[in-house]
Input
Amino acid sequence: MQYSSSAPIIELKAISKHFKVGKERIELFKDLEFNCNENEFIIFTGPSGCGKTTLLQIIAGLTRVEKGIVRVYDHNIMEFNEESLALFRSSTIGLVFQMGHLIETLTVLENILLPVELAQREEKDYEKRAWELLEEFYMSHRAHSLPRMISGGEYQRVAFIRALILDPHILLVDEPTANQDERTKVAIFQKLAQLKGKKTILVVTHSRDIFPHADRIFIPDNLKLCEKNGIA
Ligand SMILES: Nc1ncnc2c1ncn2[C@@H]1O[C@H](COP(=O)(O)OP(=O)(O)OP(=O)(O)O)[C@@H](O)[C@H]1O
Ligand SMILES: [Mg+2]
Output
């Protein structure tokens, strides 16, 4: 990817976003600004419903904003059509969302290898990596299970592995340690710590254990993003 490393990797400019539920209008963001440089480690935290997941979805182009500009690697992603956006996302961004996005008819291993197929790469080149990641997250014994046969914590780990399989430049991770036991939390934190400085990482988390790893911590508040100082 041709890119001048001095410019921000992710830029949100004057973003406004609301949801309508019946007659109620939920105002989430107004003129929100956010910049993130290459290989920064950013944490978004804050109370339930403040807009953390929506923010990651805006950055990934999964939810449209009514006003403002979303730039990722100097592309205005709102100008992409669905197809080019999906292709751009698959080659650039690893996404781990709170709620299930696994394909129910595919096994754990097949789900993990799905981005490889979508990016039109050779599956055999990624199988070893898939098994290594399964091992690392205590999931190799579930490789041939279907998503409905695994627990909530296991499900999230599969989503995490799937996000890592193509070694993306940007990692967007929504509450990776919710539903996880201590051993797995440690494995996930270790993985994020190991990737720090090598990838641009944006994590939504309430886990203070991970706060010291962050370069910057933000809370969506009062329709904007408020940077938290001295939280670690
Ligand atoms: N598709 C939608 N339609 C209507 N309202 C929505 C939609 N998605 C989110 N919201 C509302 O927007 C607000 C922010 O939601 P969001 O999921 O971003 O919060 P969050 O900070 O991630 O919360 P949590 O910590 O519980 O995951 C909430 O009030 C939510 O109900
Ligand atoms: Mg959320």
Remarks:
- Residues 182-195 form the longest helix (14 residues).
